[in-house]
């Protein structure tokens, strides 16, 4: 299974640059979307980490607080090869507090601790702010025009290479390699690796559908029977008729065309959109059957991704670019449409 075949929306870029030469070339800050109240049985920790994966740091916080691991939560995983500022939740009823300055984990600093009345749950994030330094950029006349084009038109909402791992560095551990073993009936006993393999398989099939839609010329063009996702939530509806109202809502980014996250049951799309989606899925019967047999439910995901608050500056031949994205989306999908990036790290390091 390959991940380099997916189509570009704005044609393949010409410019090149180096990505993640050092951790602070990739800065991620979570956007929680609500403010902790200052009281309650949950302690929210705002933590800066560098060179650490999220799950490991959660384990260290639990040990420091002398609590079971289940008492420590986080809203999302952040790349190990980055400087990340993210929230952790610690379930600690009562008035007892900790001196978080004594959390001795190299690469981690607790910037703030504040109580809240609700548990910090996975997926609760509104989004993430990315500040990225791309080094030794081989500039072309079209580069800044492409950035402006991405800002206006968005990019395919592909799952990024982090989701799939990188078999160049770990042939046995790549998530897609594990997924292929799963397709052949091999059991994956490690629970975390199995989960990552399933996620990679489902994400790969979604990317296939999006890519095929671009190739067919229907990425920005709504089709009869398309499933429209409402902006800001997981609700959707089937658009049986494409009228000016639908087109205007798409232009206003009030709704988005969606693609399938495969599972058991029937596709939600109908008509022309259903035919297009089925034509792609039918090319990968083993993948779709495996995902359905696992008991996953049919879900939907927008096929377009728009950055917000996008800015960029030049520092000699280095390009610093900053933007916000909704949770569950990938900064690399934005970068992919702008320039070819040479990544220094090893792929999936969450």
From TrEMBL:
Gene3D superfamilies: TruD, catalytic domain, TruD, insertion domain. It catalyses: uridine(13) in tRNA = pseudouridine(13) in tRNA. Its EC number is 5.4.99.27. Pfam families: TruD. GO terms for cellular component: cytosol. The active site is at 79 (nucleophile). Residues 154-305 form the TRUD domain. The keyword Iron does not apply. PROSITE patterns: TRUD. One of its GO terms (biological process) is tRNA pseudouridine synthesis. Keywords: Isomerase, tRNA processing. The keyword tRNA processing applies. It comes from the Bacteria. SUPFAM superfamilies: Pseudouridine synthase (SSF55120). InterPro entries: PsdUridine_synth_cat_dom_sf, PsdUridine_synth_TruD, PsdUridine_synth_TruD_insert, TruD_catalytic, TruD_insert_sf, TruD_pseudoU_synthase. One of its GO terms (molecular function) is tRNA pseudouridine(13) synthase activity. Responsible for synthesis of pseudouridine from uracil-13 in transfer RNAs. Belongs to the pseudouridine synthase TruD family. PANTHER family: TRNA PSEUDOURIDINE SYNTHASE D (PTHR47811:SF1). HAMAP family: TruD. This is tRNA pseudouridine synthase D. The gene is truD.
């Amino acid at each position: 299974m390959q991940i380099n075949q997916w189509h570009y929306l704005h044609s393949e870029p010409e410019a090149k640059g180096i990505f993640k030469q050092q951790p602070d070339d990739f800065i991620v800050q979570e956007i929680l979307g609500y403010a902790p109240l200052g009281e309650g049985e949950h302690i929210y920790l705002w933590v800066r980490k560098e060179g650490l994966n999220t799950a490991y740091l959660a384990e260290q916080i639990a040990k420091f607080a002398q609590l079971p691991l289940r008492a420590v939560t986080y809203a999302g995983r952040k790349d190990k090869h980055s400087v990340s500022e993210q929230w952790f939740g610690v379930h600690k009823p009562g008035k007892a507090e900790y001196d978080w300055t004594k959390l001795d984990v190299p690469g981690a600093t607790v910037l703030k601790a504040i109580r809240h009345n609700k548990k910090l749950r996975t997926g609760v994030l509104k989004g993430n702010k990315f500040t990225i330094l791309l080094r030794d950029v081989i500039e072309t006349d079209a580069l800044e025009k492409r950035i402006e084009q991405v800002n206006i038109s968005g990019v395919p909402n592909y799952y990024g290479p982090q989701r799939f791992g990188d078999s160049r560095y770990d042939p046995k551990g790549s998530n897609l390699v594990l997924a292929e073993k799963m397709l052949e009936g091999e059991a994956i006993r490690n629970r975390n690796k199995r989960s990552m393999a399933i996620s990679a398989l489902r994400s790969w099939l979604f990317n296939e559908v999006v890519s095929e839609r671009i190739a067919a010329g229907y990425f920005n063009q709504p089709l009869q029977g398309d499933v429209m996702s409402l902006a800001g939530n997981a609700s959707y509806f089937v658009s049986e008729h494409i009228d000016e109202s639908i087109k205007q809502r798409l232009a206003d980014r009030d709704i988005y065309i969606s693609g399938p996250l495969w599972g058991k049951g029937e596709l939600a799309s109908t008509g022309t959109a259903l035919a297009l989606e089925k034509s792609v899925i039918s090319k990968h019967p083993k993948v779709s059957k495996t995902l359905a047999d696992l008991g996953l439910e049919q879900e939907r995901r927008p096929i377009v991704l728009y950055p917000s608050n996008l800015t960029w500056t030049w520092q000699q031949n280095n390009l610093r670019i900053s933007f916000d994205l909704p949770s569950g989306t990938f900064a690399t999908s934005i970068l992919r449409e702008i320039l070819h990036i040479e990544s220094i790290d090893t792929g999936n390091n969450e």
